Hints:
By secondary structure, this protein is mostly helical. The protein contains four helices and no strands. Helix content is about 55%, strand content about 0%. The longest helix has 16 residues. The radius of gyration is 12 Å and the shape is globular. The termini are close together.
Amino acid sequence: MTREKIVEKVNAVLAEEFEVELSVFTPDADIKETLSLDSLSLVDLVAIIQYTYKVKVPAADLPKIKTFNNLYDYIEAHLPAE
């Protein structure tokens, strides 16, 4: 999956799930602020990523994922081989 496809799909899925406009997704935007995430909705975010991409996100990796760019990078680096 190309980086462009990852970005497109992540943004579409998260916009629908968290009921936000696609225009709020910029690479350097803070995920928690943009999506108004609390600890419970952060768990939802991880579940969505794991379900959509089959990418495990251990709790220890969550602090590394602050911006959407970090999230795209993480998914790209951990995608299972097709």
